Every structure is written in C-alpha cells, then in structure tokens.
Amino acid sequence: GAGVSDYSGRGRACALGFLNSHLLSFRFTELIPMKNTRNVIGLCALALGLSLTTNLRAAEGQKKHHHDASAPAAAKGAGTLTKVTKADATWAAKARESYPLKVCVTSDEKLGSMGDNAEYIYREKGKPDRLIMFCCDGCEEDFTKEPAKYLAKLDAAAKQKK
C-alpha cells in the first residue's frame, strides 16, 4: 500500500514539474509572430480608447440630462407629485388629450424618446389636479425642486395651443 501511494505522489510531482517548466518557458510570441503581436496590441489599445470615449460621453449625457439628487426638496406649501396609477386611468386619458407639450416639461426631451413616459399627477390644495408628463423616471426630481417654474411652462404652452 505505502509503495503505491508513494509512487503516485512522485508521479504527480513529476507531471506538475514538467508542466511548470514548460509553461514558464512558453513565450506568447511563439504562438503569434511579432508583427501580428504588435497589431493585436494596437487593436486592444484602440478598443480600450473607444470604450473609454463612449463611457465618458454616456456619463456626460446623463449629467446634462439628469438630476442632482442632493438639491433641496420642494418648498413647503407646494403641491404633491404622485405617480399615475390604474385607479387614475380614466382621468389621465382625458388629461392626456389636452396635454400642451410634446416634450418633457423639465428636460425638453421628446416624450416617448426614452421609452414609456413617466406620468404624474400634481395635486395642490384648492386647485384642480394636473397631469405632468416626463420623458423618463427621474425627471420628476427636477420638477419637485421648482414646481412653479415648470407649471408656468405648462400654462404658457397651453395658452399657445389654444
């Protein structure tokens, strides 16, 4: 018994030693000629550069389009913004027919350009409910910072539409 396990242990050690010596001495250039190696490295550098450029542009676009979450909340006494639900479907359908803008009230992106519109109801005590449409979820954050500014924009668009 002891001789067999001892032999198999030496066999494994020899096999590992053989593999290690060959793997350590293997050179990448034996697989790909030097000229092609330079081309591969150049293509990798180009791909990395394009990837970084695309990521930077995407991040820049997000900054331009989107929102500073650290900004203060809407002023006290202002209305509330709540997402349209199935219970509001009939009201929302009617309000959608007379909605004065074809763009997001906060970002000016075309409604529908970023998927489904984000629809909200603005409720202010003593005033009728108002439909507010955004190009995407997230734009409502900007609205809540300055609701009067964006409500005035809606009112001006409604006057022009008449």
Whole-number mean pLDDT: 74
Structural class designation: mainly alpha
Shape: elongated
Helix content: 55-70%
Q: How many DSSP-defined strands?
A: 3
* Largest sheet data: 3 strands, antiparallel
The helix-strand sequence is: HHHEHEEHH
Descriptive account of the structure:
A three-stranded antiparallel beta sheet has the order 1-2-3, with helices on both faces. It is elongated and about 80 Å long. The longest helix is centred in the N-terminal third of the chain and has 32 residues, at 34-65. By secondary structure, it is mainly α. The protein has six helices and three strands; from the N terminus they run H-H-H-E-H-E-E-H-H. The N and C termini lie far apart (99 Å). Residues 2-15 and 67-76 have low confidence and may be disordered. 56% of the residues lie in helices and 9% in strands.
